[in-house]
């Protein structure tokens, strides 16, 4: 098998990476970045080592979309072991308490899941990366300490049972930024009249990348003999992260002025609000804001002069 490029190169685009179990998000990022030989890369939204699934990895100019992806909705497949709990609310720690599991019908489970739909507040778990007086909560938790945490507003857009057998409940959920799936699983178990912890977690989608194929480490490694062109064919262009925004197009003189930070005239009067801006030929320039007079001003450019 050919070795990945030794010299870091300019790479631009978004890889929908299928992170395997047992690998931290940063370790996954470094492995993928090394295989691509990329100068600049970042990931959009961490996944715990015990979770698998979509980890968007952004290269080059596309790293500017990471902030947007961090705040977008996400979809998970969750397997909850009922009848027990752990301090971390997942498999990272040992079972600390057990409880009987009542007889549960599909109708009862579906009703409980439906009760979590919509806007609500959630208390983050102690085993989280939030900070208290400069320390991560999980560091305090590992010392056996617990502190009061402020509740957070979250939104559950969709939640549905996938299966229930042998005290294992699987459901799929689409939720807002900041939702702690471990806390959600524990709360669902509580409403079902028992205890529960996350035994399986997979991120299926990050908006707007729903239903698109994910790329595994093995698939990437198999393309190494084809060189940079074969690897780069796996990448999505940066503007796919803004597919929900309307677009606007500029003539060459307006493009130059825009790249110098000026407010410019588009080929057609631009509507108000944030827009995707393109040069002739479809080159993505970045994000602009439509002005009352129909012109556009740059807000986040993805190319240079």
Architecture overview:
This protein has 305 residues and is α+β, with helices and mostly antiparallel strands. It has three domains: 13-71 and 209-239, Pseudouridine synthase; 74-199, Pseudouridine synthase; 245-301, PUA domain (Archaeosine Trna-guanine Transglycosylase, Chain: A, domain 4), CATH 2.30.130.10. Helices cover 21% and strands 31% of the residues. It is built from eight helices and 16 strands. It has helices at residues 25-36, 66-70, 106-114, 137-142, 181-191, 217-222, 227-232, 252-259; strands at 13-19, 41-43, 52-59, 74-82, 84-85, 97-98, 118-122, 131-132, 135-136, 152-165, 168-175, 196-206, 247-249, 273-278, 284-290, 296-301. The strands form four sheets. Strands 1, 2, 3, 4, 7, 10, 11 and 12 form an eight-stranded mixed beta sheet that branches. The chain has a four-stranded mixed beta sheet with strand order 13-14-15-16, with helices on one face. Strand 10 and strand 11 (168-175) form a beta hairpin. The mean pLDDT is 91.
- Please indicate the count of domains: 3
What's the pLDDT, averaged over the residues?
91
Poorly predicted sequence stretches spanning 5 or more consecutive residues = none
Head-to-tail CA distance between termini: 39 Å
- The helix-strand sequence is EHEEHEEEHEEEHEEHEHHEHEEE
According to CATH, what is the class of the largest domain?
Alpha Beta
